[in-house]
Amino acid sequence: MNSKGILKAIQIKAVAALTVLSVGVAAAQPTSTSPSAPPSSKASAALPQVRPTPAKYVLLGNLYYDQGKYPEAYAAFRSAAEAEPRNSAALMGLGRTLIRLRQYPLAVDTFKRLSVQEPQNVSAQVALAQAYQSQYVGTSDRSQLGDVLDMALKVLDSGEAAARSGETGTLDLSLSKVYNERGSIYRLQGKYPQAIAAFQKASSLNPNNGIILYNLGDMYYVSGDLPQAVGSLQLAVIAEPADAYNRAYYAKLLALSGNLSAAQAEAAQAAKLAPKNPYAIGQYGVVAYLAGDAATARAQLQAAIKLDPLRYPEFYYYLGRLELDQANYKDSRSDLTKAVALASTNPEYYYYLGWSYERGSATAPADALRARDAYAKALALNPALQAARDGLERLK
Asked: Average of pLDDT values for 157-181?
């Protein structure tokens, strides 16, 4: 079934939810109580059904979106956009929902429509750039995509021009959004120095924004500057103390830097702030593993995976490491195989998968062929990974 067919099915499935709103509005209409009006069962049964306004459809769409009910949100936003084609809130909501439904080309088309309609709308330009990034990340075969990341950068050039020609009172805020997205695109392109510079510029324009500080800290971390990463995430936590994502990531960075006591306290607080957030729960497990608390690590990592089995390969990786430490080779291989399936470009994941196959037990015998294959893949991804090279040497 093509994209339009899939979305038509989604809309049919979700339309019943929207009907509730229409019925509720109709039921709220006052009935006549005039003494001159004769009683009529037919008249009372035939209450007029008032179609919700586009604004009410947008409100309903936002409600469903916040609840994670994306098919219903799609139906609401689409109804609003069909009733009022130039409704920017409806188009923005529709595009965001299409991304959640993995309908990336339609999301791009929706944001293009909004950008053409409102060329001075910086948020529309930023949203279009985000749609291009989502399309790049969410597409396994990128050979048909073209230079979508370069296209996203060009869109942000238009966004910057729109910001500079707009109201001066919102200039810094608008430019911070543009530079933040530039940093995200440079990160995807592997241009780490440019990404750091873009995030630094965004942060200088909007210094108390936790999202920008998170992105800057993450970029420092992937580029190998752990002290700067810790400092940036600490500022993110200070800026938004109730944000569980920032605090959970800060906890992991503290643990990696050797400050295990503070890391455990921050991780526990993040999990307390968002007990149903798989990222916060999973990072609590990661910190517990790094601190040597195997029982807490296992419980938290398994809970995070149960909440979201496909989004965080890192949690399978650490659970696999835990099983490997305890010589549970069968379970370790299973977890690490899932980790590399979800993150096939991570050499460290392949290395530990190879290690799990190199070792063995009565219930899970060693498999030198699979170990060599995993080590070879790790080395292909990172020729400087000496541990993988040593593994291949041992298995010659």
From this structure: 93
